[in-house]
Structure formats: structure tokens, C-alpha cells
Specification:
Blueprint (H helix, E strand, L loop, with lengths): L2 H10 L12 H19 L12 E6 L7 H14 L4 E5 L10 E3 L6 H4 L1 H9 L4 E4 L3 H10 L4 E5 L11 E7 L27 E5 L6 H11 L8 E15 L2 E5 L7 E6 L4 H10 L3 E7 L8 H14 L3 E3 L18 E10 L2 H12 L2 E6 L2 H17 L4 E6 L5 H5 L3 E2 L16 H9 L2 H15 L7 E4 L1 H11 L4 E4 L11 H10 L2 E3 L3 H8 L5 E2 L4 H4 L15 E6 L5 H17 L4 E6 L6 H7 L4 E3 L6 E4 L2 E6 L3 H5 L4 E4 L3 H8 L4 E4 L2 H10 L3 E4 L3 H12 L2 H15 L4 H12 L2 H25 L1
Parallel strand pairs: 1-5, 1-6, 2-4, 2-5, 6-7, 7-8, 10-11, 10-12, 12-13, 14-15, 14-17, 15-16, 17-18, 18-19, 19-20, 21-22, 21-26, 22-25, 26-27, 27-28
Antiparallel strand pairs: 3-4, 8-9, 8-13, 23-24, 24-25
């Protein structure tokens, strides 16, 4: 190692208090700002993180080299194999020349192509597949295709494109943060605060420092992570090898009091010397080179000559260094190599915590009553397909009633606003929402996202572009997106929306095939597998007991606050219809609406709660008040008198003619429902006349039914999404890995309990 490089490293590692190298500090400041900007972009989705098709355990550090990452990767991989799992290792392959992914086993690769560390790992881990790829995400895809259950990613803490299930950061106890400066003025790759992203932190080389130094490092770490997530490790020499004829052979070498000349090209050569001294070796000379240095014959001749002059009986280097020796080189003295392994303190607690990290946590986010209902269907199917996963809901508006009714936990605080949460048509509604605390709701939700960051798998978003941006900002991970808000039958997507979807979604599910084609033309990953709205009607039993003799009319006042104002209009229209024809009516109350408050809005009607289904009564007319699913009641209806949104569409898709009022929102919906819906002026007389006219015209009703079924299509989206995510995102594989590790943990705990 040159004196200039040695001087620089002494300053960067904090071994000398002052140096001309301090002139690099402005560049270190710039590195810090660029690093912070990059971190911000990944946290908020400006730059994309991609979930691999199998669980990923990342091993990395904050500093440049020398933290014993390679032995720790080996330690993790061996444990996974002992648990009966097929493990793979993915590495950048530092020092290799290949720019395309390479996958190999049993060391069957060239050092020049893959680098020294991947080759070392492959030779030591015969049952493990090693993938070398500059793009670690692509490397994990290769490992998945090779049948691996889990991947250990070497030196991946800063490789943010690859999402990971567990981030392990190693901190060198002998030189934890160098001089505290970032590159090039120090050895830090990121600010120390970046360690807060880690799930687990392991202090390495703890046997080479004092207890006081360890406590000081842990005190520093406690500013960013709970100490319960901090562990200690050391290296121990498992055996010695003798390097001859270009390979390492087992040896019965006994190191105590042997005079050896050491050489190395690793990140922390001083630590290597301490390991030798702790083993009893008398190091009489040493030579250090830059990490990953490929030795030349000239280098080795000089090392050997110095060793002979000093009276050494042999040479020694690290196992990694043997992969950087020139082909065909024969050492003039015996070359003994310590083969090290990681010894981790408190292993049971470490593996218990890591196993918990690998348990898949899935979130379904949505922004609207109809979107919540679709999200609840997806969440239920996820729980059924992946029972070992934890599934939670993140409704952006309302109380999340659909999720709660489906038994899905709701994580953010409720966000109830006068407009129902989505302002589309009236500016005054936005003002009302702001006065009701809209911005406070958004801040609370973003705070909730932040607490869940680095714990969740790819979010599933149901709704519009606002919902997509909400999840991106909160999680920074490209979500799965169910695009319920728009269809080409209404207006299609704006150019900026198509750009947003193409760039920031992992996969999109549309409401119809025409919309799929529209988005696919823009280059996005898009699927159509059925209308998500019709998934709400799937496998819902009909309720024949709801209907009595008479013309069967379904009444839907909607799911927002205006339902309380609009109900009298619908009831008045029903009364007019009942004067000319016998009527059997069912009023469906949305889960977001208070039945008691709705009943109070029905002025002049008597609310009877004595029957199996409560009802409103007036002048001989009975309207049953049903609080179940819309599709349960709709299957027996002849005509819908409705002011709802999603619920109107469900009914049209089930072949029920829709009669609604002529207003801005419904005119937009009319573009989708086309001839399956009739819009009339907002008056009881107009509504009743159209309903009576339809009931007297079976041919028109059948035509409207056919149009509704055609425009809305069939169900199937939820099943397709769950199946796609289980396979392509590896959620099913993640559950299998977690279950395997969990069962082993339970067996161990049982054995310990029986032995006590």
C-alpha cells in the first residue's frame, strides 16, 4: 500500500486527528446532501424500489469495507440451508468484469468474471446458488427461477432499487464510523442516521475492543434504533488451510508461537492482524494492499523476500486473498490460511427477530366507500390464499367500515369529512372538508405510513391517482394498482396520469379491456381480468325473504352525507309509484350511513323494528331497511331507484335498470352505464313516471339489463390480483419460508422447555 493511500486511510478512519486530507470536507458535505436527496427520493417514490419474487435478507454496512460482511453472509446462508430451505446469494461481484447476470454453484466461475467474494462464498457454500449482477433485483429473479426459497444479498444496504424483507447492517466495532465524515473525506457511505432503516444491527469484531468502547458505540446507535435490535458478533478460526497447487487444502497447522509473514488486501487489515495474534501467531512482518487488490508476481516476490529476511517459517493471508493470487503461483514458503466463521452472541433472539421480520405484512389501501368495498374483497381473498400473512387495511377516507365488517384490521386513524373524502364536482365541498380538518387527516395518515415504512410488502392501492400518490409518498414502493376511478367509457386517463401509472406502478388492473388497451399503449404493465366493481357481487347469496308481493323496487340513497338529504326525494317518488301499482321496496343503508339518522330524515314515516328486517311504513306502503350488501338485495329487484355511485354500477352489472337524477356526477356515470341508466329531473313526479313506465315495458327493461351486463362485464379481478401477487411478488413463497422458520423456532422452544 502506498504511503499516500495509507495516509488517507489513517485520516478517513479517524486514526490521526488532523491532516491535509481535511481539505476534502466540502466534498464530504456534498456527498451527504446528495445521499440525503437520494434517500428522500426512495422514501417518497420518486425513485423506485422493487419487491423481489422471494424473501431477501440484505447484509450491508455504512462504511467502506472491513465489517466482515462475507463471513456473515455465509453464516446466514448456512443457517437457511440447515432449516431445509434452498438459499441463494446475490452479489454485485466487485472486481468482476461481467455486466450481465451470472449464476453458478460450487465455485464454477472465473474470478475475473464474478469477483473474489462471490467465488469464495460459492466454494464454501456448496448447496447455495450464487447470482452476480450489477442490478441485484435482476439477480434475485434469476435465483427465484433456480428454485431458491430465500436470497441473502451481499453489500446491499445502499442498493435501494432492490426492496428487502430484512436489512441487516454490520458495524465494525474497531472502527464504527471512521472520522465521522462521508466519502471522500471519510469512510461513511451515508450519514449515520441512515442506520435507522435497518431492521437488525450487528456489531462485528467485538472481541477486539473493550467493553467501554462497545457501550459507547451502542449509546451512539441508540439514537437511531432500539438497542433490542443490536447484536454482537466476532470471528473465530474454524480451521487452517494450506494453499498449494492453486487450491486450499485442510491442514493440521498449529499456529501458536509460529513466526509468519502476513499480507492482505481487505477493508480492515489491522483486524486481520489482531485475529492472528489472538490465535497465537507471531506476526513478524506484514504488507497491506487496497481492498480486492489482485496480487502480481512482483508483489508476492517482495513479500516472500521480506519474510525470509525476517526469519518467518511461513506466510499467511485471508481466505479472500487466495482468490486474488496469480494463476500458477507457488509460494516459496508454506502459505497457511485461517478459515474464519461468524460467532454471534444471543443467536436465538437474533433468529427470532429475523423470523418476525420475514413474516409478510400486506396492506390494501383505498380512498372511497366503493373502493373500500373492493379493497375488502381483495383483503379477504389475500387472507384466504395467504393465511400466514398479516393483512391490514389503510382507508384514506371514512371509517373503513367495509374492512371492519370483513374482519380486516384498519391501521390509520379515521378520516371522516363532510363530502365523504373525494371532492370531484363542487369547490364548496373542498372548503367544507378543509374546515372539518382535511389537512390534519392527511398529516396523520402520512405519519402512519411512516411508521409502517420498511415493514410492509408492496401496497395494493384501490382508487384513483390520488390514492396512488398517497401510497407512494408514504411507502416509496411501487404499488399494485386497481384503477377504479376512470375508464375510456367515461373520459379515459390524462397524459400525466398515464405517465404516473407507467412509471410508478408494479402492475395495474383496469375496469375493462378498452381501458387496459389505452394504458398499455403507454408502455405500462396492465391487466384486465374482470371488473373490480363486479367482484363486489361475486358469490353473495340472494335474499328472497326481503321481497314481498308487488313490483320490486330497490332504493339506494348513497353512501355519503347527502343521503340524509336525498332520502325524502326517493321516498316521495315511491309513494307516487305505490298509488298506481303494488310495490315491494327495499332500502339499502350503506355501512357509512347511520340508520338512525337516516330514519329521522324520513319525515312522516314510522320506523318499525319488530320484524326480522326493520322497515319504514306510511299509508300502507312498507319499505324494508336492509343493512347488508347491495348485491344481496339487488338480485331480487326489478328496478333501481338510486343516487349511489358504485352501488348503482353493481346493480347495472347485475342487469337491473337504473333510474337516477340528472346532475353533474350522475351525467359522468351515465357515460359508463349508457343505456342501462335513465336520468330524469330531480323531482318525485319525474322519478315515479319513469319507474312506472319501465315496469310497464318489459322489452325496455330487458334491453337496459343487457346493456348493463355488457358495460360492466364479469368479476374476477380480485382473484387474478391475489394469484399474480402470490406468484410474481413471491408472497406465497414468503409465507412458506416464514412458516418453515417459525415451526423450527417453536420446536426449539419446546425442546428447551422440556429440558428445563
Amino acid at each position: 500500500m502506498s504511503r499516500l493511500l495509507q495516509s488517507y486511510l489513517q485520516y478517513a478512519r479517524g486514526e490521526v486527528p488532523g491532516s491535509a486530507w481535511a481539505l476534502l470536507r466540502p466534498l464530504s458535505w456534498l456527498t451527504g446532501e446528495l445521499s440525503s436527496a437520494r434517500d428522500w427520493m426512495y422514501r417518497h417514490g420518486v425513485k423506485r424500489s422493487m419487491e423481489a419474487p422471494l424473501p431477501v435478507i440484505s447484509v450491508g454496512n455504512l462504511t467502506t469495507g472491513g465489517t466482515n460482511k462475507t463471513p456473515f453472509v455465509e453464516y446466514l446462508a448456512k443457517h437457511m440451508v440447515r432449516q431445509g430451505l434452498v438459499c441463494g446469494v446475490v452479489s454485485r461481484g466487485y472486481g468482476g468484469v461481467s455486466r450481465t447476470p451470472l449464476v453458478f454453484r460450487n465455485g464454477r466461475a472465473k474470478r475475473s468474471a464474478v469477483g473474489d467474494e462471490p467465488l469464495l462464498l460459492s466454494n464454501k457454500l456448496k448447496e447455495v446458488v450464487v447470482a452476480v449482477s450489477p442490478d441485484r433485483f435482476v439477480g434475485t429473479e434469476y435465483l427465484a427461477r433456480c428454485g431458491c426459497d430465500v436470497a441473502v444479498a451481499d453489500d446491499c444496504f445502499q442498493h435501494r432499487r432492490l426492496d428487502r424483507d430484512c436489512d441487516i447492517v454490520l458495524v465494525d466495532a474497531t472502527c464504527p464510523f471512521g472520522n465521522g465524515q462521508l466519502l471522500p473525506g471519510g469512510i461513511l457511505r451515508e450519514k449515520i442516521s441512515a442506520i435507522s432503516r435497518a431492521h437488525l444491527i450487528v456489531l462485528s469484531k467485538v472481541d477486539q475492543v473493550t467493553d467501554g468502547q462497545l457501550m459507547e458505540i451502542e449509546r451512539k446507535l441508540a439514537q437511531y434504533v432500539p438497542l433490542s435490535r443490536v447484536f454482537r458478533s466476532r470471528l473465530r478460526i474454524a480451521q487452517w488451510g494450506n494453499f498449494e497447487s492453486g487450491r486450499l487444502a485442510p491442514s493440521d497447522f498449529y499456529p501458536k508461537d509460529k513466526k509468519l509473514a502476513a499480507f492482505s488486501a481487505i477493508g480492515n487489515p489491522h483486524s486481520f492482524l489482531m485475529t492472528l495474534q489472538q490465535a497465537g501467531v507471531r506476526v513478524i512482518s506484514s504488507a497491506q494492499f487496497k481492498d480486492h487488490h489482485r496480487f502480481t508476481p512482483s508483489d508476492l516476490n517482495r513479500i516472500a523476500a521480506n519474510a525470509l529476511r525476517a526469519g518467518a517459517c511461513g506466510l499467511t493471508c485471508t481466505e479472500k486473498d487466495t482468490y486474488n493470487l496469480p494463476s500458477g503461483w507457488k509460494p516459496p514458503l508454506p502459505l497457511w490460511v485461517p478459515q474464519v466463521e461468524t460467532a454471534l452472541e444471543d443467536e436465538d433472539r437474533f433468529w427470532s427477530y429475523l423470523t418476525d421480520c420475514l413474516k409478510p405484512q400486506l396492506v390494501v389501501a383505498s380512498n372511497g366507500h366503493g373502493e373500500d368495498a373492493i379493497g375488502a374483497v381483495v383483503a379477504k381473498k389475500l387472507k384466504a390464499r395467504l393465511p400466514d400473512a398479516q393483512v391490514v387495511a389503510f382507508p384514506v377516507v371514512g371509517m373503513g367500515s367495509s374492512y371492519r365488517a370483513a374482519g380486516i384490521s384498519v391501521v390509520p386513524p379515521p378520516a371522516v369529512t363532510p363530502s365523504g373524502g373525494v371532492v370531484k364536482y363542487r369547490f364548496r365541498d373542498l372548503i367544507g372538508d378543509i374546515r372539518a380538518g382535511l389537512f390534519g387527516h392527511i398529516r396523520a395518515q402520512i405519519s402512519c405510513w411512516r411508521k409502517l415504512r420498511y415493514a410492509l410488502r408492496t401496497p395494493v392501492c384501490v382508487g384513483d391517482s390520488y390514492m396512488l400518490l398517497h401510497a407512494l409518498w408514504g411507502q416509496g414502493r411501487s404499488p399494485l394498482f386497481v384503477a377504479t376511478a376512470k375508464t375510456v367509457h367515461i373520459s379515459g386517463h390524462m397524459k400525466i396520469e398515464r405517465w404516473l401509472y407507467r412509471r410508478n406502478t408494479r402492475m395495474i388492473w383496469t375496469r375493462d379491456d378498452a381501458t387496459r388497451q389505452e394504458l398499455a399503449e403507454n408502455g405500462g404493465s396492465v391487466r384486465f381480468a374482470g371488473n373490480p366493481i363486479m367482484d363486489l357481487a361475486e358469490q353473495v347469496p340472494s335474499m328472497p325473504s326481503l321481497w314481498e308481493n308487488g313490483r320490486r323496487i330497490l332504493v339506494l340513497p348513497g353512501s355519503r352525507d347527502r343521503a340524509y338529504r336525498d332520502l325524502p326525494l326517493l321516498l316521495d317518488a315511491l309513494e307516487l309509484v305505490a298509488r298506481k301499482a303494488p310495490v315491494s321496496a327495499v332500502l339499502v343503508v350503506a355501512s357509512t350511513i347511520s340508520t338512525q339518522r337516516l330514519v329521522r330524515a324520513a319525515s312522516g314515516w314510522h320506523f318499525d323494528e319488530t320484524g326480522s328486517v326493520p322497515s319504514l311504513r306510511k299509508n300502507g306502503l312498507t319499505v324494508k331497511v336492509f343493512s347488508g350488501e347491495v348485491s344481496q338485495a339487488a338480485r331480487g329487484a326489478e328496478v333501481l331507484l338510486g343516487l349511489a355511485g358504485t352501488a348503482n354500477q353493481i346493480c347495472a352489472g347485475l342487469g337491473i335498470p337504473v333510474v337516477s337524477v340528472d346532475e353533474k356526477g350522475k351525467r359522468v356515470q351515465k357515460k359508463l352505464l349508457a343505456g342501462s341508466e335513465i336520468l330524469v329531473p330531480k323531482s318525485p313526479v319525474a322519478l315515479s313516471d319513469v319507474v312506472l313506465g319501465l315496469l310497464d315495458d318489459p322489452q325496455s327493461m330487458e334491453k337496459m339489463a343487457q346493456i348493463g351486463r355488457s358495460r360492466l362485464g364479469s368479476s374476477g379481478m380480485a382473484d387474478d390480483l391475489v394469484n399474480w401477487a402470490a406468484e410474481h411478488l413471491g408472497w406465497e413463497r414468503r409465507c412458506r419460508v416464514w412458516r418453515s422458520l417459525q415451526e423450527k423456532r417453536e420446536e426449539t422452544a419446546k425442546d428447551v422447555g422440556e429440558n428445563q
